[in-house]
């Protein structure tokens, strides 16, 4: 994994820590890590798999609100 990734913290992350993730994208993969453990392991997904996950999570959240 490249060390030159630009990590972005989730907009749903609070300031108290907790369950937060950071995401970094590049043309061939979307990388995900725990924001509390920046030196720890990361997951990498294809852009297509990440897009499918985000769509699913968004739809699931909308269904919970209804």
Automatic annotation (TrEMBL):
Residues 5-56 form the DUF397 domain. It comes from the Bacteria. InterPro entries: DUF397. It holds the Pfam family DUF397. This is DUF397 domain-containing protein.
């Amino acid at each position: 994994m490249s060390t030159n990734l630009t990590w972005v913290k989730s907009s749903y992350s609070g300031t108290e820590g907790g369950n937060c993730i950071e995401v970094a994208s590049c043309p061939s993969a979307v990388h995900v890590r725990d924001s509390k453990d920046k030196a720890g392991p990361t997951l990498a997904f294809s852009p297509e798999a990440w897009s499918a996950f985000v769509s699913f999570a968004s739809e699931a959240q909308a269904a919970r609100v209804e």
